[in-house]
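[Primary structure, fold]
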Amino acid sequence: MPEERRMPFASLLDLIESRGGGGVDGRRGVFYMQKQCSSLTEELPELIGDVDTEIPWMSKALGKHPDAVNFWLGEEAAVTSLHKDHYENLYCVISGEKHFILLPPSDRPFIPYELYPPATFKQREDGSFDVVDEEAAEKVPWIPVDPLNPDLERYPDYGLARPLHCTVRAGEMLYLPSLWFHHVRQSQGCIAVNYWYDMEFDVKYNYFQLLESLSAVLGKN
C-alpha cells in the first residue's frame, strides 16, 4: 500500500507541475491521486459540474448505475502493476495519455501469482522509503511479472500470453471488461476519471474460476 497524505488540491498541482521535467528519484517518492472510494463524488464534489457522474449509454447497457466514480491525477513515474478488477470499467482520459497493457481472462494459465506479506511504504526523515510489513497478517496473492520487461527465464509460461497494447488519449474512453488483466502507465500530469460498475457473477465468472482452479492444479499459481 502507498503512504497516504492529505494536502490541498492546489499543492498537489504545484508539485506535479514542478516535477514534470525530471526522471524518477527513488528518494522523493511518486505523487498520485488515486483513492478508489468514488473519490470524484465523495471528495471532489466541486468538479461534478464539469464531469458527469455517470455515462448514460454505459449505465443503460449494463442496466445499473456506477458503484464508484474515481478521479486520477499523477506523475509519469506512477505505474500500476499487472492486476484485474471485479468491475466493468469505463476509463475516460481528460488530459494527457494512459498506456494500457491488456490480457484477457483466458490468459490466466500463463500469468503467475506469488504470495507476499501485506506492506505499506513509510518515508524516513531523510526522504527515503521503507517497506513496512503488516505484523501477523496473512500473505496475499499478487502478480510478480513485469509486462514491460518480463523475466521469461523465471516465468516461462508468460511467454505464451498475448498482451494487447493500447494508448488512450485526451477525449477518449476505454471499456475495460471485468476480469481483464491490465498494467497502466501515464504521461506526466495525466487527468482521468473512471466509472466502475460491479460485475455480474454469472457463467463468465464460473468459467474464470475454472481457469483459476486448473491453474492451481497445474502449479501455475
